[in-house]
Write a structure and sequence with these properties.
The chain is 46% helix and 15% strand. It is α+β, with helices and mostly antiparallel strands and 584 residues long. The protein starts with 16 loop residues before the first helix and ends in a 21-residue tail after the last helix. 38% of the residues are buried.
Length: 584
């Protein structure tokens, strides 16, 4: 009989379980150490478990644009709000439509919750408008009054200007302010666009500046500018409402805390759609926070055109106002033609600069939204549901363990240890994924973890039954463990692949909390493969070498007599009775 060749392990030969156990032990120690080192020793909780804020926004169409409140614009607004909130690092935020004109935003309690509340309803309509005139933010007295307007410093903003450059607002009497206002409205805009379509009709423009003499619209705008009180928050908010970008308007701007100026502005030349990227950065030369903006190709051409014309004007008509949601953020002067980029500087700190950059980067909302309600959501209801879910999970886990002990006896020890390893890895990964990718544990995710108990237990049962089948065929335990593994492994991989595929499809086609269920189900399915391959199989191989399991103890769960095993698979000689010569 030929001896087996060296270096080749015969079929059913023993594997090396020590390497696999060492690998999973190192992974468990590393992940657990990383969890404690990061300081995040508990999973991040969603709004249903941690509480938070629920905001209801109602879409409001501009006059004459009632049809703008439609499904397309509402879905666009949902996407922009969601990107803004996620850009702040807020986890598990939910943004969804309710009805035809409402958007519900749920923000969990935690990091940047306050910033997210401030940004969700910000329309972020950004326009660059030429400044026609600027004065104090309080209402102006009648032109024949003897008092004079107090001089106000301009916003310390710049757009490509040298460090430290400012534009001082000219001091003027009330009567000269009235004359200047009338002249500004009579005169053409300094940026009277040369890029207007040549096919446009002469009377197509709605701007009152195109007419050589004041008309009713001009008089109304002059009256509105004169009466505007920027110290009144209601008047500030209503100053530019219902005004089209192609029309002149009035607006307020805060030069310093509590110090306001009011502006008469020409038609918008550049808008927020022309901004390609924006971010808040610290200017090391000036030691101040600014917001830098990069324009698209089309925006660069527009910006070059407006700055080229403004640079030839006198103050204050050489300034352009950066208007965000009807309020002048800054109004820098222009002394040279600019094109590719601009910056906004003023009374920014780190948070306000980064907030504005975040808003401008993700674009303006297509609609104006009014906050209908802001409700604080407590975690009491979610806590009760979580407690009930954990009780249900504990009952289910207890029933599984009882079944394993009664049916598999000693083998149940391997199953319980494997479940413990799977639970530890799941907890540690959930704790690490919170700060890493913003994963938050909610009630559906808890349900996914409970369902995973059955998936993991099913893998053990498949393997145990394959081993029992081999024992019924008459093999001893150690060869049975190795011969059963290839068939069990194939079944386990197919089963887990189907579970993971279902979780992936569910994650892709759903939104909100259901994604938490799908993500947890997929994660635990992958961990099931890791635990079965690197822990359950090696431990089973080691225990097969012990007398308790190897000799088929009655409480091992592998007793050949209880399993109805066949006689051992070996050749035996049949004993022949002596044969009489005569019979032969």
């Amino acid at each position: 009989m030929a001896a087996p060749k060296k270096g080749r392990r015969p079929a059913g030969g023993q594997s090396r379980p020590g390497r696999a156990l060492a690998l999973i032990l190192i992974a468990m120690v590393a992940l657990t150490g990383g969890m404690f080192w990061s300081g995040h020793t508990t999973p991040r909780l969603g709004i249903d478990l941690a509480g938070g804020t629920s905001i209801t926004l109602k879409a409001k169409a501009e006059p004459g644009q009632e049809s703008a409140v439609n499904e397309t614009n509402m879905n666009t607004a949902v996407g922009i709000i969601e990107r803004r909130v996620n850009g702040l690092g807020v986890s598990e935020a939910e943004v969804q439509t309710q009805g035809d004109e409402n958007i519900i935003v749920n923000i969990p309690r935690g990091t940047n919750e306050k910033q997210a509340r401030e940004q969700v309803g910000t329309t972020a309509q950004l326009y660059f408008r030429p400044v026609l005139t600027v004065t104090s933010g309080s209402p102006q007295p009648a032109p024949n009054a003897s008092s004079s307007a107090s001089p106000k410093p301009s916003a310390s903003a710049s757009a490509g200007t040298k460090a430290g450059e400012k534009s001082a607002t000219p001091t003027a009497t009330a009567s000269s302010q009235g004359r200047a206002l009338t002249e500004a409205l009579k005169a053409p805009s300094p940026t009277a666009t040369a890029s207007a379509s040549s096919s446009a009709k002469p009377n197509a423009t709605k701007s009152p500046q195109a007419t050589p003499t004041p008309d009713a619209a001009t008089a109304a705008l002059e009256k509105k500018f004169t009466a505007l009180n920027c110290l009144d928050p209601k008047q500030r908010a209503a100053a530019g409402q219902g005004v089209l970008p192609s029309e002149p308007t009035v607006a307020c701007g805060e030069d310093a805390p509590g110090v306001w100026s009011k502006y008469l502005l020409g038609p918008a030349e550049v808008d927020g759609k022309d901004v390609d990227d924006a971010k808040g950065v610290l200017d090391p030369q000036r030691g101040m926070w600014i917001v830098t903006m990069d324009f698209t190709d089309a925006g660069s051409k527009k910006f070059q055109s407006i700055t080229g014309k403004l640079s030839q004007q006198q103050d204050p008509q050489n300034r352009f106002a950066i208007v965000l949601d009807g309020e002048v953020v800054s109004a820098p002067s222009v002394r040279q033609t600019l094109s590719a980029s601009a910056e906004i500087s003023g009374n920014f700190n780190q948070q306000s600069a980064q907030d504005l950059g975040n808003i401008l980067s993700y674009g303006a909302l297509p609609l104006t939204f009014q906050t209908q309600s802001v409700d604080t959501v407590t975690a009491a209801l979610g806590g009760d549901q979580l407690q009930a879910g954990l009780i249900a999970g504990a009952i289910g886990l207890g029933l599984v363990i009882i079944y394993l002990v009664v049916y598999y006896r000693g083998l149940s020890l391997i199953a319980i240890l494997s479940l413990g390893v799977s639970a530890l890895l799941t907890y540690v990964l959930m704790a690490l994924l919170g700060p890493a990718i913003g994963f938050a544990l909610n009630l559906p995710a808890v349900c996914g973890a409970i369902v995973a108990i059955g998936i993991t237990a099913d893998s053990f049962i498949v393997y145990f039954e394959r081993i029992r089948d081999e024992l019924r065929e008459g093999r001893t335990l150690r060869p049975a463990v190795e011969r059963a593994w290839p068939r069990a492994r194939r079944t386990i991989l197919v089963s887990d692949f189907v579970s993971f595929l279902a979780a992936a499809v569910l994650f892709i086609v759903t939104v909100g909390k259901v994604q938490g269920f799908a993500f947890t189900l997929g994660l635990t399915t992958l961990l099931d493969i890791v635990v079965v391959f690197l822990f359950t199989k090696p431990v089973m191989t080691l225990l097969a070498r012990t007398k308790f399991f190897g000799n088929g103890h009655a409480w091992s769960g592998l007793d050949p007599k209880r399993l109805g095993a066949k006689p051992p698979l070996r050749r035996t000689r049949r004993a022949h009775a002596p044969v009489d010569a005569k019979e032969a």
